[in-house]
Amino acid sequence: MQNQELITKAYAAFNARDIDAALTTMHPEVQWPKAFEGGYVSGHAAIRDYWTRQWSEINSRVEPIECTPRQNGTLEVTVHQVVRDLQDKLLFDGVVKHVYTLQQGLLRRMDIELT
Length: 115
Description:
The protein has three helices and six strands, in the order H-H-E-E-H-E-E-E-E. It has helices at residues 3-15, 19-23, 44-55, and strands spanning 26-33, 40-42, 58-69, 75-85, 90-103, 106-114. It holds the Pfam family SnoaL_2.
């Protein structure tokens, strides 16, 4: 799967709350940031638990804007992220960068950079 297709599939699955489809884009030992808590979770089961808990507390939508390879081999994805609480109150609306390390054509690690 090409990088752009991988990113498109991953974000579409996340926004649709389709954890199984999202996990097919990720390496089994993926490391994923806990954006609103700090730290990381590792592996598919931990991501499933984290997202299930996250979606019981907030409603987020993340749309990729641009996908750019970096010199160090990582992939920078500029995204527009909107986060609301479950009463639809806006908590965040802005642009951030998700930086991915890829392994075997899958997402191996994601880091977040504020723009």
